[in-house]
Amino acid sequence: MLQKEGQVRIPAGCAISGIFHKDGTRENGTRIIDSIRTMHDRSNGLGGGFAGYGIYPEYADYYAFHVFYDTQAAKEECEREIERHFDIVNLSKIPTRQHPRITDAPMIWRYFVTPLPTKLAASQLEEREFTSRFVIRINHTLNGAYIFSSGKNMGVFKANGFPEDVGEYYMLENYEAYSWTCHGRYPTNTPGWWGGAHPFALLDTTVVHNGEISSYDANRRFIEMFGYSCDLLTDTEVITYIIDYLGRKLGMTYSEIANVIAAPFWSTIEKQEPKERERLTYLRNAFASLMVTGPFSILVGYTGGLMALNDRLKLRSMVVGEKDDTVYIASEECAIRVIQPELDKLWAPKGGEPVIVNLKNGGNQ
Amino acid sequence: MAIDFLYPQYEVVRNNDRCINCRACERQCANEVHFWDADNNRMQADESKCVACHRCVALCPTRALKIVKTDHTFRENANWTGKAISEVYRQAGSGGVLLSSMGNPDPHPIYWDKILINASQVTNPSIDPLREPMETKTFLGKKPGKIERDENGNLVPNLAPQLELNLPIMFSAMSYGSISYNAHAALARAASALGTYYNTGEGGLHQDFYQYGPHTIVQVASGRFGVHKDYLEAGAAIEIKMGQGAKPGIGGHLPGLKVGPDISKTRMIPEGTDAISPAPHHDIYSIEDLRQLVYSLKEATEYKKPVMVKIAAVNNVAAVASGVARSGADIICIDGYRGGTGAAPTRIRDNVGIPIELALAAVDQRLRDEGIRDEVSVVVGGSIRNSADLLKAIALGADACYIGTAALLAMGCHLCRTCQTGKCNWGIATQRPELVKRLNPDIGSQRLINLLTAWDHELKEMMGGMGINSIEALRGNRLMLRGISLTDRELNILGIKHAGE
Amino acid sequence: MTTVQAGLTYYKQVNEQIRAAQDSEITVENVIGQRYIGCGSTDRKITVHGTAGNGLGQYLNGSTIEVFGNAQEAVGDTMNAGEIVVHGSVGDACGYAMRGGKIYIKGDCGYRAGIHMKAYQQHFPVMVVGGKAGSFLGEYLAGGLILVLGIGQNGAYPVNNFCGTGMHGGKIVLRCDKAPTDLPRQVLVSEVSEDDMTEFAPYIKEYAQLFGADAENLLSQKYFVLTPNPEAGYKQLYTFEA
Predict the structure, then answer these.
(1) pLDDT tens-digit profile of A242-293?
(2) A242 in a structural domain
(3) Which of A105, A289, C150, C191 is spaced 20 to 30 A from B195 at the CA atom?
(4) pLDDT band at A315 (very low <50, low <70, confident <90, very high)
(5) Angle, to 10 degrees, between the axis of helix B181-194 and the axis of helix B441-465?
(6) How far apart are alpha carbons A146 and A202 in whole angstroms?
(7) Is the dihedral of CA C41, C42, C43, C46 positive or negative?
(8) How far lies A336's CA from each of A51, A339, A344, B151, in Å?
(9) Looking at CA atoms only, how far is residue B264 from chain C in angstroms?
(10) CA-CA distance, A41 to A309, in Å (whole number)?
(11) Which segments constitute the Glutamate synthase alpha subunit C-terminal domain (chain C) (predicted)?
(12) How far apart are CA C178 and CA C66, in angstroms?
């Protein structure tokens, strides 16, 4: 029998695409679907997904849990657990449309929640830590339930299939986001489990990723010391946790995070001015086990921003285009041109050098 | 007495057609195996004195000599082997404790040889180390686990003192006394040239070698020989030796005979007196006392140097290492039961301790389970024989490796395992000036540099094959390993899958 | 003179203040177990009031430390030179591996005092204990002198058990009325003659001067000296692997 994610490590290749409006303008999911469709041949139909930021303005202060259930029993148990720890202000099935190429769907539910004040106080944890621990615990221990999205005013939509089909299945034309990321998956060996598709998310951090990292187990065994549990055995999962740890827990900026996970070569560091040399040496040495090697291009979505990063050898393709206040990032130029033929600027970032875009003045949302 | 007669284990075979009676063998052999037989006008050998060190073989100009294992035998017995029988005779005749040198030679499993290494195919590219950057630079020391910023928001360098290694190999502790001045000179020079470290062992530091201080680890062991303020300040790091893989739980004894004028100076004891290292540190009887000694050294050197703690791999090594990690040590060194020694009771050497592969796997996992792996670096030794062992050790979780025996071999050691006699024909484990001078420190250091450079190349080649271009990404990356011919239990301890999984 | 208030301050800060002091004379008040006072220092005169913590004067390299109070474990551990005077008693493992300098203890010392003391060239370590000593006094002794005056012992043997085990150098001098009987086989014992006394008298006089004892009275008592027996050393008997 084939083993699914979590039982065996599955390497995968992929396509990624992202759209970001620096002025906070929101657009629906039509164009991001058109973009990823262009790169159809980079996926093999075994996983596709999207992350949209700013999609739930009416519930902006609530964590939006998107959950897959394999069984009714798992659903009941998970809902009991959520209710024990959170106040649920809204719950519903996530709307989908019948799609000929998307089959074997699990139950897909959405909950808008906020931690119960008494539980939160008793835990002596900060709210985001409380919530992330809950999510990690459910995913690690509750068989048949999988919380695949858990941030505020954002959401992940993913399934087994080609990404353009997945976008249509979830009716993304009905969601408006200032930031979209998207992923088409090409795993080498999987029965196609829905949870294994990208983006991978924890709280509002989402990662889509192309490439197979060679540092996987070094990173995994290290990050698991800090309360994370890498249940999917995928690269994207461990990268997400690393970014969450360095950013949310240690307080690093995204550019510092990039200097850790795609640390420059020592020979490159040597060439810097003394202060910069010291800073880069420090980051590389102090957080050595979180360096990621092997080919990768990633898009990291977070509230109010987007980071694109290539591995330091730039073993994966990635281009960035700009038109007015909108930034496009994709594995291939065609995926940008197809939705925005005219660009002010188009470039391929250097390996290890992050492209970070943030909302101007917090956007107008 | 006739029962104590033991036929020599090795025979000296001389091809008299080739022998030109130059008597080089006689001059080269400190064991006095070869002698001139004037009556018969030819060279003879007393093989009972031969240790199979090959010095005579290597220097015979006409290749007239070879050493062969004798075919003389007791009646075959799988239980009472010739070795077992001989040892009984030897002890019955002398009443002595069996003493031997270097590492455990017994045919126990070598786990390194039952671990295979991964390589990239298709989904991830391999990297050509000759043309693309490939990094093996390693820092050892406690990592901060958090960042701090100054008032301008800039990162404050909050790292504890670190050791910077250009490659993840260091020379392990071998005291001046157990090995010669020239051997130490070769190690010190090679470590400096390579950008790594050698270790004084518990023999103090010779005045001539203070110049190599930035590449020296100074050891503090139970006898505290040569330990004083200047010594502590001379090194780049201080290592507290709690145990040694070849003889866990056992102290040391350098006989007064070997304590000549020079060694007397480095150990700071009178000439000709015995240098006894007690089995334990008598100021450490419990883990909190270790913390006390660690911090005494940090106080004495004003917190400027990493403090390392070396322990032998024994049954509960993971728990011990966890305690050490919480005692303020910056680096833990674990020495496996195959590690070498200048002299150890044979029964201890061959029966006490556990393999470094299992110890390392257990320690690394334990420290991760407790969330403190980043509080300490882990260095392993005993025994790392080649770059594949090195790579496997790092993938199991080591930060760097110590090599001792391999370094001695590079300098000419032939592993005859008779260091304790002090008659090393290769000028390494001896203090006799006429033997010491046989080891040219320039050549010795060059050979050490060659060895480590070659290993570093091989390491990079294997890393490139698995698509890893930085040693950080190999450390603890156990998915890069697979076991072969191992039981589930062994795989479980090593934390690796079986080949084919 | 610099005064440092220890109180409940952590040792690291206290020692930083001591190291940073411009004066060579430093008084540390209200010491409550702060460790490593004077550790590794060279030319200071440090006065300690209170209970000195573990590792007092460890690796001491020439400084003088005087404690008004007791000191805990590992006083003068691996000390190279200097002087430590304790107007009280000390804990275990005092003077471990001490190579040079002097330690004067007014009262008693705990277990394992003077283990592996050694002498070298001009270095000659001396430990003088006014009262009694715990077991394993001078274990592995390789050099130097340990003197136990047995004040208040009424002439009884002033060491607990296993005195001088593994001793292979140095001397242990004990004040008692009768020669100790349960010493290891490798230790020789003899009464100190009047001639020999000249070798030890200066230390006894210094003790008396430091702590206000009656030197004449102490000098007039009976002493025994323990030395290693070169004929019956601790050498392990070995036979070699073939």
Answers:
(1) 999 999 999 999 999 999 999 999 999 999 999 999 999 999 999 999 999 9
(2) yes
(3) A289
(4) confident
(5) 40
(6) 12
(7) positive
(8) 17, 6, 12, 42
(9) 8
(10) 22
(11) 12-178
(12) 33
- Across the range C231-238, mean pLDDT stands at 66
Do residue A293 and residue B133 have CB atoms under 8 angstroms apart?
no
Residue of C nearest to B52 (CA): C242
For residue B166, the 8-state DSSP code is S
Is residue A4 assigned to a domain?
A: no
B109 to chain C, any CB pair closer than 8 A? The answer is: no
Residues B458-484 have a mean pLDDT of: 96
Backbone angles phi, psi at B312, to 5 degrees: -85, 150
Q: What is the pLDDT of residue A182?
A: 95
For residue A364, pLDDT over 50 is answered with no
**Contact at CB, B473 and A292, closer than 8 angstroms:** yes
Task: Give the per-residue pLDDT at C120.
Answer: 93
Structural domain boundaries, residue A105:
12-362
Of the partner residues C36, C93, C242, the one whose CB lies closest to the CB of residue B299: C36
- The per-residue pLDDT for B441 is 98
Q: Which chain A residue has its CA at the smallest distance from B147's CA?
A: A250
User: Residue A120: is its pLDDT beyond 90?
Assistant: yes
Cα-based angle B481, A143, A140 (whole degrees, multiple of 5): 50
| Total number of domains in chain A | 1
SS3 B444: helix
Asked whether residue B240 carries a pLDDT value surpassing 70, the answer given is yes
Largest CA distance in chain B: 92
Residue A211 to residue B155: CA distance in whole angstroms: 31
Domain B2-96 has CATH 3.40.190.10: no
ipTM reported for the complex, 2 dp: 0.89
SS3 label, residue B192: helix
- What CA–CA distance (Å, rounded) separates C37 from C19? 10
Q: What is the 3-state secondary structure (H, E, C) of chain A?
A: CCCCECCECCCEEEEEEEEEECCCCCEECHHHHHHHHCCHHHCCCCCEEEEEECCCHHHCCCEEEEEEECCHHHHHHHHHHHHHHEEEEEEEECCCCCCCCCCCCCEEEEEEEEECHHHHHHHCCCHHHHHHHHHHHHHHHCCCEEEEECCECEEEEEECCCHHHHHHHCCHHHCEECEEEEEEEEECCCCCCHHHCCCEEECCEEEEEECCCCCHHHHHHHHHHHCCCCCCCCHHHHHHHHHHHHHHHCCCCHHHHHHHHCCCCHHHHHCCCHHHHHHHHHHHHHCHHHCCCCCCEEEEEECCEEEEEECCCCCCCCEEEEECCEEEEECCCHHHHCCCCCCCEEECCCCCCCEEEECHHHCCC
Amino acid identity of residue C158, one-letter, is: P
Q: Give Cβ neighbours of residue B335 (< 8 Å, ≥ 6 apart).
A: B172, B243, B244, B245, B246, B310, B311, B312, B313, B356, B380, B381, B382, B402
**Does the distance separating the beta carbons of C120 and B9 come in below 8 Å?**
no
What is the value of pTM for the model shown? 0.92
Q: Do C168 and B224 touch (CB under 8 A)?
A: no
Please check whether the domain covering B165-459 is classified as CATH 3.20.20.70. yes
Pick from A222, A256, A295: CB nearest B124: A295
Query: Which pLDDT tens digit goes with each residue over B339-354?
Result: 999 888 999 999 999 9
**What's the CATH number where A312 sits?**
3.60.20.10
Radius of gyration of chain A from its Cα atoms, rounded to whole angstroms: 19
Residue A5 lies in a domain: no
Give a yes or no: residue A114 inside a domain: yes
A78 is catalytic: no
For residue A225, pLDDT beyond 70: yes
The single residue listed with the structure tokens 């190291």 is C19
Q: Highest mean pLDDT: which of B88-97, B126-135, B211-220? A: B211-220
Mean pLDDT in residue range B55-68:
96
For residue A191, pLDDT beyond 80 = no
